[in-house]
Amino acid sequence: MNITHIRLVTVPVSDQDAAKDFYAGKLGFEVVMDGDAGPIRWLQLAPKGASTSVVLADHVPGLAPGSVQGLMLETTGLDADCEELKRAGIDVDGPQDLPWGRQATFTDPDGNGIVLAEG
Q1: What is the separation of C-alpha 73 from the centre of its chain, rounded to a whole number of angstroms?
Q2: How is 50-96 classified by DSSP, letter by letter?
Q3: pLDDT in tens, 39-85
Q4: Is 67 exposed, middle or buried (0-12, 13-18, 19+ CB in 10 A)?
Q5: What is 15-57 written as a DSSP string?
Q6: End-to-end Cα, the chain, rounded Å
């Protein structure tokens, strides 16, 4: 096997514009691509400088909006990020000290579960 990394993670959403506002506006992701790919809109975002990105998709058969749980994001400032998310109106659970490290959890507008972990 010659696998080197994960390139994309598909996150199913019901409204791509609302999801874009959340991931770009509240989480600070950058838009990698937002355009037509045949009959669908390809909306790809990533944290600044990251090699892995998310595709916010409203067109994947069998993937319901909100069905992704445990999408883990890493931060160097967990406490500050949690406060910023709370100020933005996001219900954040944590931060919590766990045996494997510090983390907090929250959901996107569709209920996809996100874990914010301190790296």
Answers
A1: 7
A2: -S-EEEEES--TT--TT----EEEEES-HHHHHHHHHHTT---EEEE
A3: 999 999 999 999 999 999 998 899 999 999 999 999 999 999 999 99
A4: middle
A5: -HHHHHIIIIIIT-PEEEEEEEETTEEEEEEE-TT-S-EEEEE
A6: 28
With contact defined as beta carbons under 8 Å apart, do 23 and 108 qualify?
yes
* The two structure tokens encoding residue 103: 């983390």
pLDDT (mean) for 90-108: 97
Q: Specify whether the CB–CB gap between 79 and 95 falls below 8 A.
A: yes
CB distance 24 to 32 below 8 Å: no
Give me the pLDDT at residue 88, please. 95
